[in-house]
Design brief:
Blueprint (H helix, E strand, L loop, with lengths): L11 H32 L2 H28 L2 H24 L5 H25 L10 H29 L2 H21 L14 H13 L2 H16 L7 H8 L4 H23 L7 H21 L3 H29 L5 H30 L1 H44 L1
Helix pairs in contact: 1-2, 1-5, 1-6, 2-4, 2-7, 2-13, 3-4, 3-6, 4-13, 5-10, 5-12, 8-12, 8-13, 8-14, 9-10, 10-12, 11-12, 11-14, 12-13, 13-14
């Protein structure tokens, strides 16, 4: 049996991280699905769906650069442990208010904002910690790909479990399961043995550090282009998922089971993309993968919005999610393998801001427009905007690829001279 596709699992710390996150993320996806269904059940409003997503993700856009700069100055491990405990508390409070019947849309929005603030610090710390979990840095791309596979497997299993629990027990039990799932990831973090990383004492103001991160991006065409394309995709295309409850009930005339199918098949497509990235050979151009998969995501979404047949819609949304996950994983891998170590947290924070920070603004806009023009029309427009974004960025990605080759030649020449 060929174990090269899972070679990063040979490292004990990464195995602990992988297993703990796998359990916890199933609960996370259950909570995400249950929140969307609860909001639509309470309000029957596309606009309110957008408002809740906006409330939960706008803190990421505003605070992620600060969180990334903080990560570069302090322990990534301790930051992640703290944010996971805080996320567990948030899930517990949400479960308590729903199970006791004291919930309303205002409370849901407030708790969504709290989770968004936590995630603004959690995501840069989690992404930056990845390099400390594998001893051989050549295995970092495989670790990132396996992490993406684990996330998407949870995205597949979470909605299936949530669909059963929602139809049988209600949203509160989904939130309770998510609360309990954090025990796994916190335990895995406590069991890790990460050697202390020597920190350079940095008395520099955090906001000055953020400015340096911005200057660094201006000097690196490849990383900058990847982050900007991700920002466009996140703003224009990814918010389509906000409207899945509307598609399930108003367009396909279904119920929570239909909603569960849409989410589960989306997860299956994303899992396919993650497996593709995990088995991708090192010689492949990540920039080409990013361009092709971004286009597949957008075109798949256009076809999904235009069909009225549920089985065809499932096929199209699967293809779209395959492209989306591949774009995300390839972008993350490209950035992680090209950024300088001392700038890692700050650059990743800008990536997080592009990936998760632009989505809330897009979700609010999509919810507002869908309220007046209909979900199908707006999702089709999202796909068209995604295609236009890819076409606009192709010249910059080509230029970045040429620049990477030039840098490689310079490194080879320099090493030859030194030797």
């Amino acid at each position: 049996m060929d174990f090269t596709a899972v070679r990063a699992l040979k490292y004990p710390n990464f195995r602990l991280y992988f297993s703990g996150q796998a359990i916890s993320l199933i609960g996370t996806w259950m909570q995400r699905m249950a929140v969307s269904w609860l909001v639509f059940r309470l309000t029957h409003s596309e606009l309110m769906l957008g408002v809740v997503v906006f409330a939960g993700q706008i803190p990421i856009m505003l605070l992620s650069p600060y969180g990334g700069a903080l990560t570069d100055r302090h322990s990534r491990y301790k930051t992640l442990l703290f944010t996971q405990i805080a996320s567990m508390i948030q899930a517990g409070v949400l479960a308590a208010v729903v199970l006791t019947g004291h919930h309303n849309i205002t409370i849901i929005i407030i708790l969504s904002v709290v989770l968004g603030i936590i995630n603004a610090f959690d995501t840069p710390a989690r992404q930056s910690l990845m390099i400390n979990l594998v001893e051989d840095k050549k295995d970092l791309p495989n670790a990132i790909a396996l992490n993406s596979s684990m996330v998407t497997l949870a995205r597949l299993l979470g909605p299936v479990a949530a669909g059963f629990i929602l139809s049988s027990f209600g949203e509160g039990i989904c939130f309770l399961v998510n609360f309990l799932s954090f025990v796994a990831v916190i335990a895995s973090l406590l069991l890790m043995k990460i050697p202390p990383v020597p920190k350079i004492i940095n008395k520099q103001d955090i906001w000055q550090g953020l400015s340096e991160g911005y200057t660094y991006l201006q000097q690196h065409t490849g990383i900058r282009s990847v982050i900007l394309l991700m920002a466009c995709t996140s703003f224009f295309v990814m918010p389509y998922s906000t409207l899945l409850p509307v598609f399930a009930t108003n367009i396909f005339h279904g119920n929570v089971t239909t909603f569960s199918w849409l989410n589960a098949v989306s997860g299956l497509g994303a899992l396919g993309g993650a497996i593709y990235m995990a088995t991708l050979k090192p010689g492949n151009s990540l920039l080409k993968v990013i361009a092709y998969c971004s286009a597949q995501f957008a075109i798949g979404l256009i076809l999904f919005s235009l069909t009225g047949l549920f089985p065809l819609a499932l096929c199209f949304i699967m293809a779209a999610e395959f492209g989306m996950l591949s774009q995300i994983a390839a972008s993350n891998t490209y950035i992680q393998t090209h950024v300088d170590e001392n700038m890692r947290g700050r650059v990743i924070s800008y990536y997080v801001m592009a990936f998760q920070g632009m989505a809330p603004i897009g979700s609010l806009l999509i919810g507002f427009l869908a309220h007046y023009f209909g979900a199908s029309t707006i999702v089709c427009a999202e796909g068209i905007a995604g295609v236009i974004a890819v076409v606009c960025f192709i010249p910059y990605l080509k230029k970045a690829g040429t620049g990477d080759l030039s840098d490689l030649r310079k490194r080879v020449l320099t090493s030859n001279i030194k030797s």
